[in-house]
Amino acid sequence: MNRLAQATSPYLLQHADNPVDWWPWCDEAFAEAKRRDVPVLISVGYAACHWCHVMAHESFEDAQVGALVNAGFVAIKVDREERPDVDAVYMTATQAMTGQGGWPMTVFATPDGTPFFCGTYFPKPNFVRLLESVGTAWREQREAVLRQGAAVVEAIGGAQAVGGPTAPLTAALLDAAAAQLATEYDETNGGFGGAPKFPPHMNLLFLLRHHQRTGSAESLEIVRHTAEAMARGGLHDQLAGGFARYSVDAHWTVPHFEKMLYDNALLLRVYTQLWRLTGDRLARRVARDTARFLADELHRPGDGFASALDADTDGVEGLTYAWTPAQLVEALGEEDGRWAADLFDVTETGTFESGTSVLRLARDVDDADPEIRARWRGVVGRLLAARDTRPQPARDDKVVAAWNGLAITALVEFLQVAAWYANPDDEDANLMDGVAIVADGALRDAAEHLATVHLVDGRLRRASRDRVVGEPAGVLEDYGCVAEAFCALHQLTGEGRWLELAGGLLDVALARFAAPDGGFYDTADDAERLIARPADPTDNATPSGRSAIVAALTAYAALTGETRYREVAEAALSTVAPIVGRHARFTGYAAGTGEALLSGPYEIAVVTDDPAGDPLVAAAHRHAPPGAVVVAGRPDQPGVPLLAARPWVDGRPTAYVCRGFVCQRPVTSVEELVAQLR
To answer: How many Cα atoms occupy the beta-carbon half-sphere of 262 within 13 Å?
Structure first.
């Protein structure tokens, strides 16, 4: 009896018809294993995972494998995106046993959940032999199996422990982190490390803030070069916008084609801030197109943002996206087809599989002559129309709280920059205006969804689907990312409601997730007990829960003037500081918040009747130092602390600038405001 048919997770639903008698993660599954005296098979993956699909097709859809699993095990299927706490614990076990991790993750455990054998993807013949061997070991070598499990649990406990060394996150440590990133920087291809190469969005955000604080030209160039290399490569969808999960090579040519919400949200922030600081035309275009991708492809009206687009189409990776020269000619005609092949580096030999190529931008278009840009835009539109007739990748429409928070924050930043940049004479002005309109609607939809669907009795739930919230409780990253998003939305709208909601989430985090050393656990003190309580301080594909909550605490303290939240943020950062100087690539989000705290962060209030169009507001966003908060509106608006007791000066719009709760004199001109922000 397969029990996944009622799941809210698309990944679990993909396995609802398997011959394997899957259980969802629940106490009843472990009780059944204890009753039968059999091991537990825990299979962890996610809907857009290519190798998860491969293992499912080879093994979990196979009747022989199903019979073996059902006879000798209780099988539990877990969506890592819905249960990041379960994933974190067993991934630590997998890494401890094998030295590496990944998905699909395959864990064999005792009926109390203690893992004793872990791995990732297994081809069917290997998996069949493994099932037989584990079953034999469980029956005939039980004591050895239990000793192995005890050793793994001890290793997990050490890896997930809190209470390590602490230190203030100083300017010297942040300088050391930037210097370390510079030594690991790939000067030829951009980014860090070799293949596979992941977009280092959080490190780039840190380096942008580091450049703002220190004036480091090297930090800015690392960001500029990496951003350009990613945008020109196959990692970036040259037709519809958005970025794939990673590049299988070191030079961004061939991607792993899944598109994740969190990557695109964080990359939108990178390109938006690079555009803001430099005026770079490529960064502007990529920010606009990434915002459009989020709003058009991942947002559902009246709902939140979906989690991902699949890597596969009809079981074939890249089927939707790859081209041959002949296909370009078929879509565009002979002359434009040859021109597009040169522009996008599509050759007869190909850069991908079976002579196909992934489109990458081999020529500059952003600074080209107007006629070249016009031709390029026309070609892109026609190719996209042709591509839309192909089979399309599936969408994982599960709404994850933390990732929606990241998307809301990114879109708010994009709208703030787009507003001050507005130029009616720009050839793309209408397109930028249209993207801004749909982005604004999408982020407000998502915020309402989080506030009304995911927030249940004052506590966050992790995921929902079709406006039905799932049972799994929110983890620390959910509270941090959503609270930071609500702080951003408060600044965009001037509405006190969002700040109040952010404060409520942060108070829950302080009450339920705090650790004795000043750090945080990833799960609440009243959450389901696992074999270890996860507390990972490092940033990986997304900000760690600790980094996310620190960023939210910092913004909230600046917006409210309540210093205790800043003090908690500084204490939590002190638990990460010893890692920052040694492992900068895994602490980017924390380091970026450290830059904000060193900067102030600045608190900027603009008293005005025209928050959307006042030049003072535009100047505040244009010149904001790292992590600054900006609120605009009439004085003494309810629920808006930064506007309290802030009168007009001489009846004119007035800017108030404070730093670390110390305020400068109010000013009424753009020039005076800019001078205070330098």
So the answer is: 23
